[in-house]
Amino acid sequence: MTTGVVVGAGPNGLAAAIKLARHGVDVRVLEASDTIGGGARSSELTVPGVIHDHCSAFHPLGVGSPFWKELALHRYGLTWQWPEIDCAHPLDDGTAGLLYQSIEATAVGLGLDAGRWRGAVGDLAAEFDDLAQDLLRPVLNIPRHPIRLARFGPRAVLPATAMARWFRTEEARALFGGAAAHIYTRLDRPLTASLGLMILASGHRYGWPVAQGGSGAITQALAAALRAHGGRITTGVTVTRREDIPDADIVMLDLSPAGVLGIYGDVIPGRIKRSYRRYRQGSSAFKVDFAIEGDIPWTNPDCGRAGTVHLGGTFAEIADTERQRAQGTMVQRPFVLVGQQYVADPTRSASNVNPIWAYAHVPFGYTGDATDAVVNQIERFAPGFRDRITATVSTSTTELHDYNRNFVGGDIIGGANDRLQVIFRPRVAVDPYAIGVPGVYLCSQSAPPGAGVHGLCGYYAAQSALRWLRTRRAH
């Protein structure tokens, strides 16, 4: 029987294992931590009974993932929950851009920009499933929907700063800017409009849901699906050298390129080794979890109905702070994401104490304490927030790396999203999952299509491994 070993039990490692197991491979997953999940874990971080997500929180690409839908993860206990408003972006004057799953409700709320919002993302939302088939896989492939891809292309290649000029109101520009900032690089670079448009389109197609009970419920469902197909998971096993990996026909690595080099560097071909060494990290976060009494006292009350709240002020301010961050400067008012998962999933709260999830964009490898910067940015749009805090847990970039060794320097998205690396990761190749060692493949978020709890990095890496296996058998 064909055997496979997967190193790492994050969503992509589990997805790769499931794909292999469904094709008859005897799969074993090795996880260094005592619990599975990678960036999709949840626990009581602050006070008993209050559930916090450790990293990933909202899943617009997860609920729409073709692989998750194929697996029907609801059969394994996963339940999605949606907030009334997916995302809010407040401004200092008390107004806010509001993202609803309904494109019409969003457009109406943007007033003068109603028609422009529909024009910017309406067709992308309507065609999202087809677009995703081409965009959420390696770039160097024959497009399945070339006409739709061609319509998206002129917008995708723009800098976010250029796309923002399409809108006339500060609310619409800020709402777009907050989504665009998820690309985690300066917004005046080509292609930086692409991710913002895709996140907004996926939101209008599927919403920005949370997993009931915490993001860890996603990986628990994946683990159940894997076991149902005969796969096994062993925790507490650290792999730092090839001798730590049991003999197998296929090895899948849910690791960073640096982690792959540490294990296979002496046998990887020179050209691939050089690409891995050149691979750039750069998307660091500083995370803060709060337990608060009641709700955040937002100046704009609509923000209290939103699952996600982007804090950064106007688009111009976001663009400026992201530019400074990319240049290594820690600004006083960083871009901050706030998660109010309990709005959609009340099971995360304990009585009147609610969990608040937040993180700031900080320079790569930032060694300081950004807790006050996060609190001040929330207080800026919600005066009195500080008085409602009952517990705080901060996680620095170093602690994020310690928590998950794929988060190099606190980089939670698996690599810098700038220059050619935004579309070619971890290297320019028709098969970017192959590391140049027969039967060994990279399946982490450092491979296409990149960050997000969608499992597609693992799915496509496993597809590559299965193609190699068929070729080997044919010979």
UniProtKB/TrEMBL annotation:
Top-rank lineage group of the source organism: Bacteria
Pfam families xref list: NAD_binding_8 (PF13450)
Protein name: FAD-dependent oxidoreductase
Species this protein is from: Mycobacterium spongiae
